[in-house]
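Input sequence (310 aa), recorded before submission:
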Amino acid sequence: MENQSQVTEFILLGLTQNPAAQKIIFLVFLLFYLATLVGNLFIVLTIISSPSLFASPMYFFLTFLSFLDACFSSVIAPKIIVDSFYEKKTISFDGCMTQVFVEHFFGSTEMIILTVMAYDRYVAICKPLHYVTIMSRQLCFFLTGLAWAGGFLHSVIQISFILTLPFCGPNVINHFLCDLYPLLELACTDTRDLGFMVITNSGFICILIFFLLLISYVVILYTLRTYSTEARRKALSTCSSHITVVFMLFVPCIFEYARPPSTFSFDKMVQIFYTILTPFLNPFIYTFRNMEVKNAMRQLCCNKLFLNKK
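Predicted structure, C-alpha cell format:
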C-alpha cells in the first residue's frame, strides 16, 4: 500500500466528542454487535445442522447472507467500540485502506447474494416445475463463488482509486470509519474525475441492481395471482422479508454513493443504519415469520439440552 502519501495515520472524529455520550455509545454498540454475531451465527448453525434446510437453495443462500452480515458488522463495530475509550481516535494509513477494502468487499458481496436470492425466488414461484433442475447444488455453489468474485473485483477497483491519491497534510476524517468520499476530500489533488468513477462503480451499480430486483418482484407478485391462498401467503411471507432487507441495504447505499462527491452531517447516521442496524435486524426479519427456521432452532436447542442432560 505504497503511494505518494506523507500521511501515516488518520484521525477519526467519531460519532461524538462528548465523554458521557461515548460511554453510551460503547454500551449500545457492544450490545448491538454481540446480538448481531449471536443472531447471524445461530442462523448459520441452525441451517447447517438441519439437512432438510441446508439442502434447500433458499436456506443455503440465507446461510451465506447471515455469515456475510456477521463479517460486515465485524469490519465496523469493533473499531467504534474500542474508539469509545479514547479521546483521540486514530487509524493507520494501511488500516484505513484495509477497512475501505474489506467494508466494500463484504457489502458488495452481500448485494450480489441478495440478487441471487431474488433469482432463486423467481425460479421457485415462476418456474416451479423446473426449480429443482435449475437451482441445482452446482449452480448454488457457482453463484456463491460469483458473489465472492464480484465483491472482490468491486473492492479492488474502489481501493485502486484511493491508493493513487496523494495525502500530504490534512488527516482528520469527520467520520467513525474510513470511506471513499471522506478520503477524497483529504487528497491533495483534484478528485472530481475519481469522484465520478466512484459514482459509476458504486452508485449506478446499486441503482441498476435495485431496480432489477424491484422488477423481478413485480413479476413474482404478478405470478402469485394464480396461486392458492395458502401458497400465496407463504410465498409473500418469504418475499416480503427479502424485499425488506433489500430496501434496508440498497436505499442507504444509493444515498451514499449515487450523488456528487461530498459529505453531509447525517452521513454518519445513514452508515450506522446499513452497517450496524441492518446486520442486526436481518436475523429477526428472516426468522420471526419463518416457521421452518424457528422449528429448526427449537430442535437444535432441544438436542443440545438433551445432550447436556445425558
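Checked by second reader. The chain has one domain: 9-309.
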